[in-house]
Amino acid sequence: MRIKIGRRDMRSVFKSALVSLFGLCAILIIPYQAEAQISAEFDLAGYHVTEPVGTAAVGMAEATVRRDSLIISGHFEDLKGRYWSAYIHYGAPGEKGNRLLKLHADVSDDHRSGRFDPQKNAFKMSDAVREALSEGNLYLLVSSEPHRQGEIRGQLPEL
Length: 159
Known about the structure:
This is CHRD domain-containing protein. This protein is an alpha+beta fold. Helix content is 23%, strand content 36%. The strands form two sheets. Strands 1, 2, 3, 6, 7 and 8 form a six-stranded antiparallel β-sheet that branches. A hairpin with a 6-residue loop joins strand 6 and strand 7 (114-116).
């Protein structure tokens, strides 16, 4: 038995195939969009520390939110003394706060500069950290041996 298909039927088949193809594309694209990320850069300086520090040290950092992770990258240089530590703290601009996340810095040979590798500084966010970040209540503090309470600081933007 042979079935005859006319032009009108072929158009109908073509339209159905096209609609199916668009549907398949939508199914594949929606999960990709759910993995979108948002990033913002911020500076690190001594005058941002709660008790300002007169220092030549400076830095730049970037905070990235990808799904449920906070990722920090960036660099700092010209600390007054040897690098001591770096943390993400809870606190509004101008306020001191508790340490939340310890950052890993790849430090230079003289221990006065370094960088934050995003692969070593990715953290799963708790609901509290996510809320603090969305309200602009997190900051990055880099400490050196002479300034263990912080030599340079930068407020993470609201993300």
